[in-house]
Design goal:
By secondary structure, this protein is of the alpha/beta class. Helix content is 38%, strand content 11%. It is built from 18 helices and 13 strands. It has helices at 16-19, 39-43, 60-71, 94-100, 103-106, 118-135, 147-164, 181-188, 206-212, 235-244, 277-280, 337-373, 394-397, 403-412, 440-459, 461-465, 478-483, 489-499, and strands spanning 139-141, 171-175, 192-196, 217-223, 248-252, 272-276, 293-297, 309-313, 316-320, 378-379, 389-392, 419-420, 429-432. The protein has a 7-stranded mixed β-sheet, with helices on both faces. A 4-stranded antiparallel β-sheet has the order 10-11-13-12. The longest helix is centred in the last third of the chain and has 37 residues, at 337-373. The structure holds pyridoxal-5'-phosphate (PLP). Pyridoxal-5'-phosphate (PLP) binds at residues 86, 146-148, 179, 181, 223, 227, 252, 254, 276, 291, 293. Residues 86, 146-148, 179, 181, 223, 227, 252, 254, 276, 291, 293 line the site of pyridoxal-5'-phosphate (PLP).
Amino acid sequence: MIKKVSPHIVQNEPLIFERSSPGKRGYQLPELDVPNVDAEAALGRQNVRGEIEDFPEISEVEAIRHFTRLSTWNYAIDLGLYPLGSCTMKYNPRVNELVARIDGLAWAHPYQPEHLSQGCMEVIAALENALAVITGMDAVTLQPAAGAHGEFTGLLMIRALQEHRGNPRKKILVPDSAHGTNPATASMVGYAVENIESNDRGMVDMDRLSRHVTEDVAGLMITNPNTVGVFEQDIKRITGLLHEKGALVYMDGANMNALVGVARPSDFGIDVMHLNLHKTFSTPHGGGGPGSGAVAVRDILKPFLPGPRLKRESDRWTWDYDLPQSIGRVRSFYGNFGVLVRALAYIMAHGGDGLRRATLDALLNANYIRKKLEAHYEIAYQSPTMHECVFSDDRQARKGVRTGDIAKRLIDYGFHPYTVSFPLIVRGALMIEPTETESKRELDLFADAMISIAQEVEDNPELVLQAPHSTRTSRVDEVTAARKPILRWKSSVRSAQAAD
Ligand SMILES: *Cc1c(COP(=O)(O)O)cnc(C)c1O
């Protein structure tokens, strides 16, 4: 029997092209009160388009309803828990949006003269300073547009320093738990990547690591807490080992949600790191940007930072372009400024104590989820959980139900799925990050849904295997969707006709 959960009003919405009929307009123009000019005569025939092929013709209210209805099909952070791990889908307070829309900030032009841009420059300086305090590092650049871009910037600086020391070296070490961007970045910067296998506690294995650290190694890229949600307890020994051999340590700071206000990467030996401002410091993300991958460095890397750099000259800010050792620009202008404004607003609204409390609440919530679910799902590692917890589908797989099936069933319970099948080193991973803003009530609803699904797997695995049941679209053929995406209306109609 199929249990119907969370019933809602179904407003099935066709494609906008199917709503179209010739001659419908979404606008009304007043009668012409200037001389009528023939467009072809004025512009030249080749510059005038008679019609746009397949352009939908509908009324204004139809256009509004079409998009409003479609918007109700989406799950959103404003509707409920978004438990995607590794992405830190936290709630972003509205006040940050308000601040980012202040006229002087929102309308500032990057070519505006410096004396009219002092406020914006102050925002950049204040944020650089706040992030330096939070990470304990000596300098920060806000140019990179995303985490992966920050990695790229950081490794270019490592390379510049090693070259300056006389040998750029050949390899970057990357633990097997790392996010895919880490090895990709190292490879793009021209390094060979060497993979370090994790141990059974989900941490970097010191013995294996020490065998890999040679004079050929330019640096290690490490995520801490790592992508299995575990703090690398040997981190001081790890950074010590790399430094002994003249190598540097890059930290992927995507998981700073677990450290802000509690631990500073500089204190455990990190040389350079990025922060995903759009994950840890409040910018709505998930739709593809914009983001910010601020990079923080220790003093030895400061000369290599991208330029220009802010400089204080008597009573005003100015841009310093005279940076002989800089790796150069990594992005036009000064970074994604609107994201920077939101990050500074978030940091200042919380204050130091507030940021620390957010971290502790994130850890509390993740550990609460772990405790509630441990009896029903296999926890991947026995090590302490930080801000996210990773389970495997080992128990459910015995009934033929995998992590992707459980995720689909979760949709029937009104939740966005957790992260499916990542990190790759955990077979059938279920990765859950609740973040600090979720209430106990929401966490209990989520845990109850997960426990109920675990029971369904025992009693009636078919129910889970065929989920979701309460959505407009049920299972789609994901492989075909990825390999042969239908991106145009006409071809979709044609292939549907061909199938008939
Ligand atoms: C999100 C993430 C990245 C990449 O950051 P983007 O801003 O998406 O480029 C890198 N590493 C980890 C661990 C991440 O979670």
